[in-house]
Amino acid sequence: MTTRAAGTFDIDSWDAEKPYEEENGVKLTRVRVGKTFHGDLVGGSTTELVTVETAAGPAAYVGIETVRGILHGREGTFVLQHSAGNDDGTPETQWLRWLIVPTSGTGELAGIRGEGEIIVTPDGGHSWSIDYTLG
After folding, report:
1. Taking burial as the number of CB atoms within 10 A of a residue's CB, which of 65, 71, 79, 108 is the most buried?
2. d(Cα 129, Cα 7) in Å, to the nearest integer?
3. CA 54 to CA 75: how far, in whole Å?
4. In a 10 Å sphere around its CB, with 0-12 CB exposed, 13-18 middle and 19+ buried, how is residue 112 labelled?
């Protein structure tokens, strides 16, 4: 049975290195992000991202995020694989997806699988949802 979890998160840290590749207006940058989750997931995470910026602004990123916390009363860790971007630099064409990496769950979250999304709210906040199963 699939369960939906949802909530918000705060970005506690955003440590970007200088672009490691820059050519014809396209920049690639490594970023380390720290978050605090609220809602059906209470905890924190560390994320390693590679971002792509073009003349239109932020264009895409990929990343791996280790989440530590309590999800619907179950404590453990799991890893999220990020895939995100937009077509033209505007929020209207943005997509921000997560995939729970199979076999990455530990503790009471062992066997977790699923996928989710991040939504950037008009005020710049972040909400999230994940549809998951526990095996």
Report:
1. 71
2. 7
3. 40
4. buried
**Residues 36-57: tens digit of each pLDDT:** 999 999 999 999 999 999 888 7
- All domains in the chain, ordered by first residue: 3-134 (2.40.350.10)
Residue showing tokens 């602004």: 57
Q: Are 48 and 63 contacting, i.e. CB atoms less than 8 angstroms apart? A: yes
Nearest to 9 by CA among 116, 133, 132, 134: 116
Percent helix / strand / coil, the chain, rounded to 5: 5, 75, 25
pTM of the model: 0.91
- Please name the amino acid found at residue 21: E
CA distances from 81 to 38, 50, 74, 101, 115 (A): 20, 12, 21, 6, 9
